[in-house]
């Protein structure tokens, strides 16, 4: 069996300026790592997450950097010495003992170098010498390629977002960002093991087992494979000769335990242990992989003439005629089937959790994914301007039942698809990514890129990304990962690909139109407006909001926080390139001003910019669920943050939920109540939306509450109804005529819908007009706190009168937040600490009244 030496840990990092304008820099470095982080640890730069410090470290990208490590070998172990770099960012020459081994040019490729004859006993010196991005781009005509934010990035195979985006500053860094090891390999190695469900029916599952080996010898080899169920019981074994460098077998499993997404079943994981041996029986190498027994398929069905789907398609094409040119072409659904069952995909987009991902620990990944699962997510989309996330991300998604769609790593631009050097590198990158991820049951489909062809027709022979999708990414998926669908781009389908009635659609594609609405309307109709963007499947729906105040204090001073011009917050919000006379932050500020009561308190104004994200995400989720017959899923832009930003994310950079997170969580429970006012006749519809696997039956009640009512006061009007809603559907369980309720539809009353059944309870509060217009009476909202030994506890929240937007503030994760309380109600809110029990922090309650 092979011996491996970990070459991570402490290295020496030196930087020099070819122009001589800067003094050389030498610091200790950590590998895996990035230059920026090492310079921060070494006291050379201030924390680039804080204030304007990001601007003060832009010089780093123009320096020439070199990593150096010396290591001793008392002996050279048996085997063939191979140096493995699992990730180098990006352009670097590798030297061992002064001998150049080769060059790297892609952040996402694993590099291996044979070092027999170069490695020696005693002292060895390993050097990684980086070229600047500017140096690597000399002679490249990147000016010919349109791209969002900056166009030189299209030639550089590294995480695109850190060239600067509308949620992260520019951080072009360098580093050995994933592990380095020296392996002494046997004469034959396991190159790859791929296990997938080939077919699944009532008789069982056919599991395809694919082994690839690397050979340095011609003698016969044998493979031993043992498959175990989730409890460790052997369910299949094979001992076969290997002819050539591949072996493919089929295992038949009777009554397999199926892997399901969260909310649809359990997540059992099988294992396969593979050992390759010589003809004499000597074990050369062993590898264990996990997999889940499950199938995935994307189903796209044309709307039947005269169906309600066809009626909805007609209405959407009339409403969004600027972005839908499909004419008389039938609309078509977009649904994900797992094990033959349709899955409603509810979730958000994942971006890199740090500009320097090498410094992120596994606990942070686990925390973020736990939050996603707790919010009833079923899907995460790994966005194409980021990275292939590490194993901890994927193993947690497998364990939690979070489905993932993965973009190939190109975003928002035209790429040099005819450049041979670039396509060679992309091909190696795509193969690396496919092989790394294809055993994970959580991965359900691939996208060729993000938004490169958004404004083109799917039939256009020259849409950006088509050549790459047909000759590289799509072809490799068909060859290396036949168990999953491949979509050429996201969004994709129809004329143009952005259109809402065919395929997938990014509402982010019309974000500027949404901002224009904010600027030019009083927003009395804001519910109808934000409920109108229904599509067959929405992989991106944008909704911004500020982080909690305690998070903002980590990246700005109190003086900057209290600045009435919000300059620092605007800097950390970044901006969209299409907003030349406006900004994303100004749009968010305007949204807060129009939807919430005016206040001179700066901190309160910031908090209300978080409320609006909560309000609008809940509205959008409910609208998609009410139209469940038409849509297959909704993913928000975006889930997490890459930097200390104030903008699109639902969870901030430090791992704390923002207002939008709680809005989605409230609207994503398996069974929800939702009140809607019909736009045509003014009637009030009481919807019940059911994502359980069985019918949901229960009792509902709609009543009118006066905003100055106390606990002992009776409802001014009420009506009860029964409901029975089929699984995976929604229904208007009761309808009330406008005339019956018209006298209560003002700013002194709210409508409250409550439902109850075996599933539990839910509530929806509805009022006419904007929240800012509500005539709220003092609520006397208060909290009582019970703590536990782990740094968490339980809150009991009460109010004497109706309390609107009860906000809990503190460095904790709350089970609910930004909620309403009815008069006399007592609500229990569990909470926990990210930091742990060692730090006790205060919790504050704020409500509008």
From TrEMBL:
Its EC number is 3.2.1.25. InterPro entries: Beta-gal/glucu_dom_sf, Beta-mannosidase-like_N2, Beta-mannosidase_GH2, Beta-mannosidase_Ig, Galactose-bd-like_sf, GH, Ig-like_fold, Ig-like_GH2. Residues 11-178 form the Beta-mannosidase-like galactose-binding domain. It holds the Pfam family Glyco_hydro_2. GO terms for molecular function: beta-mannosidase activity. GO terms for biological process: carbohydrate metabolic process; glycoprotein catabolic process. Keywords: Glycoprotein, Glycosidase, Hydrolase. It catalyses: Hydrolysis of terminal, non-reducing beta-D-mannose residues in beta-D-mannosides. Residues 189-294 form the Glycoside hydrolase family 2 immunoglobulin-like beta-sandwich domain. Gene3D superfamilies: Galactose-binding domain-like, Glycosidases, Immunoglobulins. Residues 785-833 form the Beta-mannosidase Ig-fold domain. It is an enzyme of class 3 (hydrolase). Belongs to the glycosyl hydrolase 2 family. This is beta-mannosidase.
């Amino acid at each position: 069996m092979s011996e491996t030496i970990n070459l991570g840990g402490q290295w020496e990092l030196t930087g020099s300026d070819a122009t001589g304008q800067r003094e050389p820099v030498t610091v200790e470095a950590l590998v895996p790592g990035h230059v920026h982080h090492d310079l921060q640890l070494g006291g050379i730069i201030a924390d680039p997450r804080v204030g304007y410090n990001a601007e003060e470290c832009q010089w780093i990208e123009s320096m020439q950097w070199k990593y150096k490590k010396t290591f001793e070998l008392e002996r050279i172990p048996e085997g063939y010495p191979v140096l493995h770099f699992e990730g180098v960012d990006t352009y670097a020459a590798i030297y061992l003992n002064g001998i150049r081994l080769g060059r790297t040019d892609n952040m996402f490729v694993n590099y291996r170098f044979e070092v027999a004859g170069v490695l020696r006993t005693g002292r060895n010196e390993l050097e990684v010498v980086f070229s600047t991005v500017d140096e690597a781009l000399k002679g490249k005509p990147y000016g010919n390629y349109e791209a969002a934010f900056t166009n030189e990035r299209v030639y550089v195979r590294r995480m695109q977002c850190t060239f600067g985006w509308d949620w992260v500053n520019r951080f072009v860094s360098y580093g050995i960002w994933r592990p380095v090891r020296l392996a002494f390999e046997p004469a034959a190695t396991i190159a790859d093991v791929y296990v997938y469900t080939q077919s699944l029916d009532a008789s069982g599952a056919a599991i395809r087992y694919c082994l690839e080996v690397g050979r340095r010898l011609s003698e016969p080899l044998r493979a031993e494979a043992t498959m175990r169920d989730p409890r460790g019981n052997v369910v299949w074994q094979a001992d076969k000769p290997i002819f050539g460098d591949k072996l493919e077998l089929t295992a038949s499993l009777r009554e397999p335990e199926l892997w399901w997404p969260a909310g649809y079943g359990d997540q059992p994981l099988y294992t396969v242990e593979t050992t390759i041996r010589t003809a004499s029986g000597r074990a050369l190498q062993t590898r264990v992989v996990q997999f889940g027994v499950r199938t995935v398929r994307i189903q796209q069905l044309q709307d039947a003439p005269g169906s309600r789907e066809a009626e909805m398609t007609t209405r959407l094409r009339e409403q969004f005629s600027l972005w839908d040119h499909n004419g008389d072409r039938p609309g078509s659904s977009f649904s994900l089937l797992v094990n033959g069952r349709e899955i409603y995909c509810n979730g958000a987009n994942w971006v890199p959790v740090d500009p320097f991902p090498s410094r992120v620990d596994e606990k942070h990944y686990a925390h973020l994914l736990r939050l996603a699962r707790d919010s009833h997510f079923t899907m995460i989309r790994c966005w194409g301007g980021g990275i292939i996330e590490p194993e901890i991300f994927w193993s947690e998604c497998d364990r939690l039942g979070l489905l993932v769609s993965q973009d190939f790593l190109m975003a928002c631009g035209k790429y040099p698809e005819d450049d041979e050097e670039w396509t060679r590198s992309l091909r190696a990158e795509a193969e690396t990514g496919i092989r790394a991820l294809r055993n994970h049951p959580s991965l359900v489909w691939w996208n060729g890129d993000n938004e490169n062809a958004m404004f083109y027709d799917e039939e256009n022979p020259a849409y950006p990304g088509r050549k790459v999708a047909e000759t590289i990414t799509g072809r490799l998926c068909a060859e290396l990962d036949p168990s999953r669908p491949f979509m050429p781009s996201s969004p994709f389908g129809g004329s143009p690909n952005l259109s809402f009635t065919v395929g997938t659609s990014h509402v982010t594609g019309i974000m500027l139109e949404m901002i224009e609405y904010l600027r030019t309307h009083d927003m009395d109709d804001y519910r109808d407006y934000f409920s109108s963007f229904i599509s067959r499947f929405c992989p991106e729906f944008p909704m911004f909001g500020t982080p909690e105040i305690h998070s903002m204090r980590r990246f700005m001073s109190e003086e900057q926080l209290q600045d009435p011009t919000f300059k620092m917050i605007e800097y950390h919000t970044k901006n969209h390139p299409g907003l030349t006379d406006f900004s994303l932050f100004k749009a968010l500020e305007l949204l807060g001003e129009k939807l919430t009561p005016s206040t001179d308190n700066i901190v309160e104004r910031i908090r209300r910019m978080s409320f609006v994200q909560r309000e609008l995400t809940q509205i959008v989720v409910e609208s998609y669920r009410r139209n469940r017959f038409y849509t297959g899923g909704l993913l928000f832009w975006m889930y997490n943050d890459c930097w200390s930003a104030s903008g699109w994310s639902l969870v901030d950079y430090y791992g704390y939920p923002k207002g939008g997170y709680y809005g989605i969580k409230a609207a994503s429970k398996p069974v929800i109540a939702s009140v809607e006012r019909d736009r045509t006749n003014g009637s009030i519809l009481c919807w019940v939306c059911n994502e359980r696997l069985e019918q949901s039956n229960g009792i509902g009640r709609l009543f009118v509450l006066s905003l100055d009512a106390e606990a002992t006061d009776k409802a001014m009007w009420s009506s009860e109804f029964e409901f029975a809603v089929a699984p995976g559907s929604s229904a208007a369980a009761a309808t009330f005529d406008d005339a019956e309720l018209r006298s209560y539809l003002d700013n002194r009353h709210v409508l409250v819908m409550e439902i109850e059944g075996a599933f539990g309870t839910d509530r929806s509060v509805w009022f006419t007009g904007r929240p800012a217009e509500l005539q709220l009476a003092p609520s006397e909202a208060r909290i009582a706190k019970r703590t536990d030994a782990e740094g968490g506890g339980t809150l009991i929240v009460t109010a004497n009168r109706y309390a609107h937007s009860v906000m809990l503030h503190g460095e904790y994760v709350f089970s609910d937040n930004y909620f309403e309380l009815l008069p006399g109600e007592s609500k229990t809110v569990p909470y926990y600490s990210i930091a742990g029990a060692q730090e006790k922090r205060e919790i504050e309650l704020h409500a509008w009244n």
